[in-house]
């Protein structure tokens, strides 16, 4: 009996996405403390020292919005930001399905697939 093999070009109707956050501060005086969540999931609190990273993977909701928010603190600095949002074309990471964030003294840098470079997306203040 012949077996059917999946087509190499099969379309994944619900692909996995990855959001990665990297602490790229220039000193290790204070850790970057991250608390991320969506409407459905609380991803907990994570502490990143200099040059450490943390990531999670997920699939978009089949219907409706997938939206992840993170509160980040570093010393006395604190900010809550959108890190993934199906309603924001910049934060959908469509091509590679990877949303990469670099957190630094000067702000929150996002890797733009369209521009193939890091762009400053948020300031701390």
TrEMBL record:
InterPro entries: Self-incomp_S1. Pfam families: Self-incomp_S1. It is found in: Secreted. Keywords: Secreted, Self-incompatibility, Signal. It comes from the Eukaryota. GO terms for cellular component: extracellular region. GO terms for biological process: rejection of self pollen. Belongs to the plant self-incompatibility (S1) protein family. This is S-protein homolog. It comes from Acer negundo (Box elder).
């Amino acid at each position: 009996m012949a077996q059917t093999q999946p087509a190499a070009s099969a379309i994944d109707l619900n692909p996995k996405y990855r959001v990665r956050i990297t602490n790229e501060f220039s000193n290790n005086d204070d850790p970057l403390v991250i608390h991320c969540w969506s409407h459905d999931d609380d991803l907990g609190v994570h502490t990143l020292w200099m040059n450490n990273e943390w990531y999670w993977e997920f699939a978009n909701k089949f219907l409706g919005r997938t939206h992840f928010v993170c509160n980040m603190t570093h010393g006395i600095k604190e900010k809550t930001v959108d890190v993934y949002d199906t309603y924001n074309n910049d934060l959908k990471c469509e091509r590679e399905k990877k949303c990469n964030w670099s957190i630094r003294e000067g702000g929150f840098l996002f890797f733009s697939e369209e521009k193939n470079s890091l762009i400053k997306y948020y300031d701390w203040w």
